[in-house]
């Protein structure tokens, strides 16, 4: 595994793309890639393989609050690579010099202190501002965008999200950009990708296969003329009847095991 010196990369003002594939299970991501159904992602993630990691949250809100506080998904092993970013810790704790440390309550404020413009392209309704709770995550950004066609009931949601993300990224280049995209296609409902009203392991795989081309366009479009730190992961998974469980917000391997990748391109 290549260790990324995020302290130097972010400290120098490199643009950052952070994509969360909402509710995407690790086993679905792995099998879909091995079956050749996500060729664009296979060409992006290191070695053409997802890392298996454990999420700090079992549904969208706590997972993203953890991510934006410095707690990204961890490897299922005792030894961990340096964290990419971290809130300034208490004096007694030492931090790997390759970790980007921000002296702020969350990553977005910390990046703002380093001159970054922070932008959110929302997907699921936790980013919609339709309710007070749906404003908590968007409020953390300088700019946030959400439209109904960005959400999972829209079969072409990822295309709409990527088009808007590329427009936003191309609008201004006077400051380094932290661009966050919450991909909703892999969140229920996704049965429509198989022409069925029911959600399943298979329909989530079909949703990921649909999103693949557009995510490839996003990364290619952003990195054609600028250097980016790219982080791709799921916030949590989803149970489709395994051991009698359904949904998320539960401690079960189908929910806690998520795909993860990070690279500089």
From TrEMBL:
Which InterPro entries does the record associate with it?
Alkaline_phosphatase_core_sf (IPR017850), STM4013-like (IPR047838), Sulfatase_N (IPR000917)
Q: Which Pfam families match?
A: Sulfatase
Which part of the chain is the Sulfatase N-terminal domain?
A: 15-252
Superkingdom in the source lineage: Bacteria
- Which NCBIfam families does this entry report, sorted A to Z? fam_STM4013
What is the official name of this protein in its record?
Answer: Esterase
Q: Source organism lineage?
A: Bacteria, Bacillati, Actinomycetota, Actinomycetes, Kitasatosporales
